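Long-time lurker. I teach an intro course on protein structure, and each term I like to show students one example going from raw sequence to a predicted 3D structure in token notation. This year I'd like something fresh instead of my usual example. Would anyone be willing to generate the tokens for the chain below so I can use it in lecture? Attribution to the forum is fine with me.
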Amino acid sequence: MAKLSEDLIAISTMLMTATERGELIRLAGELNSTVLKVMEIEKTAGTPAEKKKALSATIKFTDEEIKGMSKTFKKEFIANGCVAHIIKRPSGKSGFFYEIRYRRNGYNISVSNKNLKTAKRMFAEATTKLDEPKKPKAITFGQMTDEWLAYKKGKVVDHTWEMYKRYASLYFSKALLSKDIKSIRTAELNKFMQEFADRPRLYEDMRILLNSIFKYALLNAVISHNPVTLIPFKRAERKSRRSLTTAEIKEFLTTVRQAKYEKIRQTVYVLYFFGVRPCELDEEAHFENGFLICRNRKRKGGKIEYKKIPVPEQAREYIDFSLPLKLPGCAQWISKSIAALLPNELTAYNLRHTFATICQKYVRPDIVDIWMGDSSERLVGRFYAHFDDEFMKEQMSKVVFIT
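-- Reply from a regular --
Happy to contribute to a lecture. Here you go:
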């Protein structure tokens, strides 16, 4: 057959090149059409079965065909539309055999035969010889919480992750953690959230935490719906953070000298003279060549960026540069201690705003934004992209802090 195809193509080519007469060209065209038909026959006739592709689809059983199934399986099968999975595989030179499968809800049935009707009958018979389906092991809310925390680590800033972990440990009861996550309903979670009704910021954080865990479970097909969706999200009102007045600055600088504040004194000075966030004073923070260098902890998605802030001359009178910059305790304890130190219910973040306000009196706002870590200007490694170190030191030398 292959030889015939080659000969026909050669003849048609000779006919087309031998003369320009219209009749011969027409005949050559017809000859080419014949060749194509022959080649198509060659492709299908006698093709080895192993070169044919298997076909996969779903197959539906009729009411008559499911009569012979076991009662237990029949309920399951009907609930899922009387549908199974079928694969048509090549067998021999021109034959096929049919494999029918059902793998769902703990069942694992597979039969095959060259005849489709026989395969269906075998499938029905196989359901009468089944053991009890293996039910998937329940996933508890506690297991899902641990899995979600492991997934989020490195994807949010460290202090946010630590907060979520701490809240899960403090507020999720053993009874809730041990429950099958599929069995938890909105009413139960709503009752749980009422415990935080008089603490708006904690309510907001806990609602975010719960929603994130259940949303993660939903996207991983562990649950079919998110019970947190119906619980209203209430954003806590933020107090506007202002900078300290001159009198308040002098008051806190005097108060921090008391012996009871010795443990946080260094931290307070660094927050005031450098405007960093408390969470940025970790093991990476250090002084180097007249700069405080620390990780910018407000970068999302695991991005690593640093802040490089010149050391003010006035800070040298207060800060002991031989001491480590890492917080002398957990962030929550530090925040409470600083709040107790500062007047008029001010917090550690008010010191950050105070730094920005003072610097903007003497330096361009875009330079201050770089020091604060709020600018689009980024460090390349440990170097400013568009400003050299001497320029930055010169800018800081213009700033006069209240002492």
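Some talking points for your students: The chain has 15 helices and nine strands. Residues 47-51 have pLDDT under 50 and may be disordered.
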